[in-house]
Fold this sequence. Notes:
- By secondary structure, the chain is mainly alpha-helical.
- The chain has 4 helices and 2 strands, in the order E-H-H-H-E-H.
Amino acid sequence: xxxxxxxxxxxxxxxxxxxxxxxVDLNRVFNExxxxxxxxxxxxxxxxxxxxxxxxxIDQYKKQIEDLNKLRDDADKPEYTExxxxxxxxxxxxxxGETQKTQRDIEEYKRSHQxxxxxxxxxxxxxxxxxxxxxxxxxxxxxxxxxxxxxxxNTLNGTPGIVFSQDSMDxxxxxxxxxxxxxxxxxxxxxxxxxxxxxxxxPDTKPDSN
Length: 210
C-alpha cells in the first residue's frame, strides 16, 4: 500500500512518554488487520466471476471465427454459380459482422468491469484505512500524544519520510492488537491475495474485414 506520511493530533499509548511524537507502520497495520484479507478475498471472488464470464465470451468468439473461416472456404468453391456465390458472400459478411460485434463486446466488458473492480478496491481500502485512522486517533488522544507519524511512507523523491525513530516510540504492534481483538479464528480468515483480472484471456484472432 502506497501510504503517505500521516499525522494526527494527539499521540498513542501508555508505555510511551506523554507529549512525544510516535510512529506507526501504516502499511503493516493495513496488511495485518484481519478485515483486509477478508475484503480482498471477496474482491477475488468478484474477479473470478468476471473472468469466467469473459472466458465464455471468448469461447463464443473463437467459435464464430471458426464458422466464419468455414463460410469463407465454402464461398470460394469454383463450382458455384454467380447467384450462389452472392448468397454465400452475404452469409460471410453477416457472420463477419456478428464476429466483430462479439469482439467489441469483449473489449467493452473487460474495460467496464475493470473500472468497477478498481472502484470496489478503492472503496475497500478507504473503508479499512478509515477504521485504522479512527483507532489511532482515539489511542493518540487517550494517551495525550502530540503526533503520530507513518513510518512506511516515502517522500515524492522516493526517500523515507522518517529517517530514524526509536523502536520504543513505535506503536504499530499496539494498534494491530486493538484492531484484531475481535478477529475471528485464524482458520476462518482467508490468506491475503491481491485480486487481478486475467489479462491473458484475450481474443487471439481478429476477423479479417475482407
